[in-house]
Amino acid sequence: MNKLTKSELEETRRRLESLSDNQLGHEIYDDRHEFEPAPGQENVHAEAEVYRRLSTMLIKLSIRRHSLMVCAAVAAVALIVVLMAGSAYLYNRYNDIESLSTNVFTAATDRATVNLPDGSTIELNGNSSVSYTLSGFNSDTRRVEFNGEGYFDIVRACLIINVADRVV
């Protein structure tokens, strides 16, 4: 029984890894016919040796490909977990947007129109300001902080306006 040398085995492995499945099938077919006995000769052992060697190499190649697929799947799952954790972090971090305050200031010669979340509007004159949060606009009450001079067009009742030290 002939055995491959280490360098022959390494060369065979390199060739196997570079071949597609179709090319590999042609190589096996060619190797099988290369070792077919001449008419009248019985060389079954040589053919069996070729099949054994190729089967061993194919199994090793299949295991290597399977290992790569498992590694890719693990990496994909890890990436999904990281993306989900990052999304949850960002969602929780920016979910408190209702507590953010909207502030509008006008200079002495400026005017501004402020549209409130409930549809009410405020026309601000010069040196005026209004500030509110989304959480200040719930179903029962609406609350704004106001300083200066302005015209309010209120959509519905219950708009609480804090002016300096007074509540209107």
How many helix segments? 3
Number of strands: 8
Elements, N to C (H/E): HHHEEEEEEEE
Residue-averaged pLDDT: 77
Helical content, roughly? 40-55%
Describe what you observe in this structure.
The protein has 168 residues and is α+β, with helices and mostly antiparallel strands. It contains 3 helices and 8 strands, in the order H-H-H-E-E-E-E-E-E-E-E. It has helices at residues 6-18, 21-34, 44-94; strands at 101-105, 112-115, 121-124, 129-133, 142-147, 150-153, 159-163, 166-167. The strands form 2 sheets. The protein has a 5-stranded mixed β-sheet with strand order 1-4-5-7-8, with no helix packed on it. It is rod-shaped and about 105 Å long. The N and C termini lie far apart (104 Å). The mean pLDDT is 77.
Ordered list of secondary-structure elements with their pairings:
Layout: H1 6-18, H2 21-34, H3 44-94, E1 101-105, E2 112-115, E3 121-124, E4 129-133, E5 142-147, E6 150-153, E7 159-163, E8 166-167
Parallel strand pairs: 5-7
Antiparallel strand pairs: 1-4, 2-3, 3-6, 4-5, 7-8
Summed up:
The protein has 168 residues and is α+β, with helices and mostly antiparallel strands. It has helices at residues 6-18, 21-34, 44-94; strands at 101-105, 112-115, 121-124, 129-133, 142-147, 150-153, 159-163, 166-167.
Question: What would the keywords be for this entry?
Answer:
168 residues; three-stranded antiparallel beta sheet; 21% strand; alpha+beta
